[in-house]
């Protein structure tokens, strides 16, 4: 008989609806039951694409004896961390403070009033490799709560005081200068893996925000060694198994240090950030391979991660048919059956497919050697090799489509949709892809009509139901996407929507006495602690993106209140982000915007007319990370609202471009050649 989770919309929670565990979703019913029964809470937090979450479910939550232990002694609550990042953040902080490490699945034991007193991550069903079995943990916690409750409650109160103090600590203001950026880049370079690219060792994560900052630093300094950090890493990632060479898109991370063996889950937020990064690298270097990766990744998202109504789905699992990576791996025989012996011989050389394999006897496709080496081995010209590979990839993709696909989490999260909206909106005009712009507009129409109510954003949507208060990241990320959509369409509606959401963000999340914003709004439910995340993780912190969008809006509208808020965060965080750049990559990008001074480009002319399109083409084709772009279709249009368009007449009735810094402009130009010269001179 299904438990209470059967009424939820989260795919992760629904995966547990048939467990013999008496699960509750987080909410007043469960908390009241704990108080009335005077029982501790067992809080289990995970997400649908989490491999070890599935393992613990199968081993423990589906076991009737273990479920009986849980039901007898605890009120059991299951939470999807993607729906409730606030709960995940505060209880992860608690677990890391208690144990020194964290991860998912996360298992936390709480007092009836929600204070954590013990926690960990995955527990096996019996003692294993020095880890206590989950039944032993359950019995010990139940006994301790029964016999030493006062001691546990005192420890929980002490932990709450410590975490509250940590989240509200004030940091003195410091000067934010170019030296801050230089120091951060130097620190980042020290952790760079010169052999395989990226930062640190196994497991290796892409860290697109740190790479974005490095690419900006190259633009700022012209240092080719900095560019090499980015280009080498992008080359290695897109050649490795972390990249899906048949279907496009990136897996979450590599379990090794050379990008070969991925943890096969695909996350929307990774592909949003990485597609933007490869797009920027293409603009900066004109390397056609980066454009190819960008388009293959965005095409994958359009094809497999976009709902008919316009929202973007959240994740694809690592597993299919109960096996991790089964959908993606190949044997030589399987490839020969699809391609025939002759083409398979070339394909297998290019993608290093062998009889013994590189993953549990099968092969993850990767490109460890240059095409010139493959050309020598196969006796075919490099161009012929690539023609064969392109043809074979199409055939193998079609064959793979007949396999059982990994599970997909089809909930729509506002924050993650904002990241992907930004990616499509940036790529559409730069690549001349009208289909990308259509996807971006459809997403904005869907989110603003379905997931925005009474001026407030909601967090999640699935099966026709939008719910949960939006978090800081939902507001900041979606404002970011809307600004990019305005710069791709010049429909003033998107900029107005962005501004309205930014104003709501300031009203509901800003902590004026502290450096930054809270993660939860002023009208959010009262929790064990009010989280305030400053550092980037797999996704940027809400604070980082909030700073960046406020600086942009301050430039569009010439409103100091936006810039003052952002600057107050940046100046307080300057020494911290300089010392820990991988934890503050996106905040460093905002700092770069502030220090370098944004490039303001205003064009007066019909954006669909040939003369204006020529001017816009020069802007879109260049890597201008701190560029703010506005267009008025005719003289005076929107000038009362958008400061950058005020006092911008056309020259001789032709589309006219103004290139400015802090509203101090160069002479207006009407030819693409003249605009190109101004842009190149400005950013040199």
Care to describe what's here?
The chain has 684 residues and is of the alpha+beta class. It folds into four domains: 4-167, Glutaredoxin (3-Layer(aba) Sandwich); 178-320 and 409-596, Glycosyltransferase (Alpha/alpha barrel), CATH 1.50.10.10; 328-402, no CATH class; 599-683, Glutaredoxin (3-Layer(aba) Sandwich), CATH 3.40.30. The protein contains 25 helices and 20 strands. Strands 1-3-2-4-5 form a five-stranded mixed beta sheet, sandwiched between helices. Strands 13, 14, 15 and 16 form a four-stranded antiparallel beta sheet that branches. A four-stranded mixed beta sheet has the order 18-17-19-20, sandwiched between helices. Helix 9 (208-221) runs parallel beside helix 23, helix 22 crosses helix 23 and helix 24 packs parallel to helix 25 (672-683). The longest helix has 20 residues, at 560-579. The protein is globular. The N and C termini lie far apart (67 Å).
Strand order of the largest sheet: 1-3-2-4-5
Query: Could you estimate the helical fraction of the residues in percent?
Result: 40-55%
The CATH architecture designation of the largest domain is Alpha/alpha barrel
Beta strands, count: 20
- Gyration radius, in Å: 26 Å
Largest sheet features: 5 strands, mixed
What percentage of amino acids are in beta strands? 5-15%
CATH class of the largest domain: Mainly Alpha
- The averaged pLDDT comes out at 94
The DSSP helix count reads: 25
The low-pLDDT segments are none
User: How far apart, in Å, are the first and last alpha carbons?
Assistant: 67 Å
Task: Predict the CATH topology of the largest domain.
Answer: Glycosyltransferase
């Amino acid at each position: 008989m299904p438990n209470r989770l059967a009424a939820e919309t989260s795919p992760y929670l629904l995966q547990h609806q048939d467990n013999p565990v008496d699960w509750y979703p987080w909410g007043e019913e469960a908390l009241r039951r704990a108080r009335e029964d005077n029982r501790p809470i067992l809080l289990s937090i995970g997400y649908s694409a989490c491999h070890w979450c599935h393992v613990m479910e199968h081993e423990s939550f589906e076991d009737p004896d273990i479920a009986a232990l849980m039901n007898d002694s605890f009120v059991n609550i299951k939470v999807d961390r993607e729906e409730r990042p606030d709960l995940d953040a505060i209880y992860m902080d608690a677990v890391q403070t208690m144990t020194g490490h964290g991860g998912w699945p996360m298992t936390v034991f709480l007092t009836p009033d929600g204070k954590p007193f013990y926690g960990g991550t995955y527990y096996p069903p019996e003692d294993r490799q020095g880890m206590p079995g989950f039944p032993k943990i359950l019995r010990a916690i139940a006994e301790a709560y029964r016999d030493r409750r006062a001691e546990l409650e005192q420890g929980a109160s002490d932990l709450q005081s410590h975490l509250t103090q940590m989240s509200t600590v004030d940091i003195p203001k410091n000067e934010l200068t170019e030296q801050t950026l230089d120091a951060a880049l130097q620190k980042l370079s020290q952790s760079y893996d010169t052999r395989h690219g990226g930062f640190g060792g196994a497991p290796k994560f892409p860290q697109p925000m740190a790479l974005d900052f490095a690419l900006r630093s190259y633009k700022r300094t012209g240092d080719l060694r900095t560019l090499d950090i980015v280009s080498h890493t992008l080359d290695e990632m897109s050649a490795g198994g972390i990249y899906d060479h048949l279907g496009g898109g990136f897996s979450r991370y590599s379990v090794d240090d050379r990008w070969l063996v991925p943890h096969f889950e695909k996350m929307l937020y990774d592909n949003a950030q990485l597609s933007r990064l490869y797009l920027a690298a293409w603009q900066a270097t004109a390397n056609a391979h980066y454009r190819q990766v960008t388009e293959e990744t965005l095409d994958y998202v359009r094809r497999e991660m976009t709902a008919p109504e316009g929202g973007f789905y959240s994740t694809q699992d690592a597993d299919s048919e109960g096996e991790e990576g089964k959908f993606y791996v190949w044997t030589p025989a399987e490839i020969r059956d699809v391609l025939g012996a002759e083409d398979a011989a070339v394909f297998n050389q290019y993608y290093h497919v062998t009889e013994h394999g590189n993953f549990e006897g099968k092969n993850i496709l990767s490109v460890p050697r240059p095409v010139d080496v493959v050309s020598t081995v196969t006796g075919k010209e490099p161009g012929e090799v690539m023609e064969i590979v392109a043809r074979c990839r199409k055939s193998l993709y079609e064959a793979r489509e007949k396999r059982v696909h990994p599970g997909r989490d089809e909930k729509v999260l506002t924050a993650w949709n904002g990241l992907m909206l930004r990616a499509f909106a940036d790529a559409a005009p730069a690549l001349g892809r009208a289909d990308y712009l259509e996807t971006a507009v459809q997403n904005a129409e869907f989110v603003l009509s379905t997931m925005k109510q009474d001026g407030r954003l909601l967090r999640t949507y699935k099966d026709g139901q939008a719910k949960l208060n939006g978090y800081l990241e939902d507001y900041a990320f979606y404002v970011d996407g809307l600004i990019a959509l305005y710069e791709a369409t010049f429909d003033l509606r998107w900029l107005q929507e962005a501004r309205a959401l930014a104003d709501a963000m300031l009203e509901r999340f800003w902590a004026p006495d502290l450096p930054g914003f809270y993660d939860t709004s002023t009208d959010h439910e009262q929790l064990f602690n009010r989280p305030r995340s400053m550092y980037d993780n797999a996704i940027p912190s809400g604070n980082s993106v909030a700073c960046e969008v406020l600086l942009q809006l301050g430039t569009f509208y010439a409103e100091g209140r936006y810039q003052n808020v952002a600057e107050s965060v940046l100046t307080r965080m300057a020494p911290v982000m300089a010392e820990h750049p991988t934890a503050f990559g996106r905040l460093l990008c905002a700092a770069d915007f502030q220090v370098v001074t944004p490039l303001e480009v205003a064009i007066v002319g019909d954006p669909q007319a040939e003369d204006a399109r020529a001017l816009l083409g020069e802007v879109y084709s260049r890597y201008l990370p701190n560029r703010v772009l506005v267009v008025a279709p005719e003289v005076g249009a929107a000038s009362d609202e958008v400061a950058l368009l005020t006092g911008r007449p056309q020259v001789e009735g032709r589309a006219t471009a103004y290139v400015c810094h802090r509203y101090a402009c160069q002479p207006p130009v009407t030819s693409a050649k003249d605009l190109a010269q101004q842009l190149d001179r400005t950013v040199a």
